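Notebook B, p. 112. Complex prediction, attempt 2.
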Amino acid sequence: MDNPTRARAVLDLYERLRREAEAAGYLLNPDREFVLDLMEGLLTNEGRYGYPSCPCRLAAGRRQEDLDIICPCDYRDPDLDEYGACFCALYVSEAVARGERKLHPVPERRGAQRPAQPAHPEALVGFTAAGMPIWRCPVCGYLCARPQPPLKCPICKADRDRFERFPGGSR
Amino acid sequence: MAKVMLYALSTCGWCKKTRAFLDEHKVAYDYVYVDKTEGEERSRVLAEVQRWNSHLSFPTIVIDDGKTVIVGFQEDRLHEVLGV
């Protein structure tokens, strides 16, 4: 980080991601030096590939092959749920941020099997065609299709346990 | 003295922590930044990593030609295996 323009870009990215994380109910790792290194990695990858792919994964360098590892990656939320941190530990859970839970290496989730297709067409009610359940925020109506609702609604910050299945209404 | 080979990414925070650990404990090691390799060298290095870690994740630390392989920055394991 010898170049002042680069140092500025690293700090700008850090501030932007922190703002966005907070606005959406996520937390960045409180270890600032560690996070600044990851910002440096994201900027390096953006310069190399044209998109900020995960600094802790080897990118193919072809966007179509790397879509799932563009930060924040497809695996962030399940890893936050299970390990309290994303693969890089850029994003952490509240327990980790408060120092109540220790960080351990997060195993690579990428490449694991996707959910199976439902056996009967009627089972598609409340699911996307790919078999992913649809969730509705009861506060603002935000809809999403994913294995579990988000920790907090990205729009209104309602907590996960308030989300209901859509269509339907059961939790 | 154990023979230590570190497969790392130049952009990865855990790889950096691993190098800092090895440096701090004066462990001699070879390393390659896989993201900085290209073409045939990339293929050769990836084939090496794949032998020890099918997920191709980093850091991958290969000790004594595969007698022990540590995936991810596991400080406790490094202490134990390297005796530092």
